[in-house]
Amino acid sequence: MRLLFAAAALVLAASPLHAEDSAMRASANEVRAHVEFLADDLLEGRGNGQRGYDVAALYTASHFRSLGLEPAGDNGSWFQDITFRRASLSGQQVRHGGREVKGVRLLPSVLEERVELTAPLVFVGYGLEAGPFGHDAYAGVDVRGKIVVAFNEQPDLPKGTNSDISAHLGSSRVESAARHGAVGLIVIGSDRYVRFHSRREVTGWVDAKGRSNDLPGDLKARMVATDDAARNLFAGSGQDFAQLRAAAKSGKRLPSFALAGTMSVQGSSTWEEFTAANVVARLPGTDPALAHEHVVMSGHLDHLGIDESRGGDNIFNGALDNASGIATMLEAARLFAQKPEDARRSVLFIALAAEELGLQGASYYVANPTVPLDSIAAVVNLDMPVPLYDFNDVVAFGAAHNSVAETVAAAGAEIGISVSKDPMPEQAIFTRSDHYRFAQAGIPSILLFTGYGSGGEEQWSAFFKERYHRAGDDLTQPINWTALARYAELNYRIARRLARETHRPYWYEGNFFGDLFDPKGTRRTVKP
Ligand SMILES: [Zn+2]
Question: Signal peptide position in this chain (predicted)?
Fold first, then answer.
């Protein structure tokens, strides 16, 4: 009897809907319809610059129209057309102290067809900034107009440091160099790393102002170098390269100092251009005091397209990555549109291009926003739920840093979903989807994954091993449409709370990312 009673009490406690719950309910058929369309072979894997992507963009805009939303792209349209440039290197010469250097490879440039550069060199350790942990590669050196040289490793952070911080550091080297006014960056890596980059094409957006995400700031040249090549650059600096190398391998603190001699770099790139569009819609808010603010729901519309070089099934349908995220966004938009009075703030829905090329649609949007960035209160990003099981927990990437954490917990409690801690810190998910670009612009931003409970761990590991970024991420997977609807409903409930609550989400006081991305502290107003 006791046991039975306990079980009954549990069911009651988890029972989602009480009388005053006025949220709309998500529909399994709605999300299923979107995924089955977007992940069909006819959509050809929604590759950027390919026909299938454009069809998917039109489909999304068409649904926005049917829901009665407002176009919120460029020039009163649904779309924000982005020009991408794919660059490959057609020649290079690198000299140091007048002598040709072997083992330094220039990366192709999307901004400069011909690079010509002569500048002094400055060694900056890891080239990373983590001031609160005593690592600031740029403290005490002036790198303006110079070429900075850094190891590809990362400094050791104290045990127990939030894993998002090392994920962030690993992806921040280029931005740090640009922010400090360097004109060139050389990253010293393993032979394998240098070989990989030597073969690489580089794709980046270029905007009407002549800017690109690939070479931010004044950066003109990115290079990679082997240890052998780097050793010569340290000659005459009075520092022992072998010692620095060993220290870098074990994550020890490294000094920053000027190197001897100047380097001259010449190179040329050949270009190929293509376009892909972000698709943007707005549901106007109903509260005159808050309607100028926006809650963003975003998801990437692109996937990897068709790989013509492969035989057999060569269509990368991206059913979970990320047709299911777009389906979630469209379903949330439908629920909002049915009860628009819930949105005191406006809600902006953005289907983003080129996430698979390195979060590029998001970085373009942040550089060319269609509403003031200051007006964006929070971002709920939707990327790659794995709805193959009846999940009852989620992981909220990014939430630990700002008050959206509380919103996620409250919205989850409404429908019996708990929040778990990140079970895959090694995947560095915080930096690997579009919400990160919005966070870098100072906006509290999150992404939910379905959790490891209820059999999720097995599903995730099989997905990563067998189908992630492969042709098998398609409609033959046993997608649990009820679970996907539940994921959609949770995200809708989170966005609905963010759009209704009077206070704006804020970074937690003293949070690493709040201090870094919102240095003026304009988003650290504490809840009244
Ligand atoms: Zn992906």
Answer: 1-19
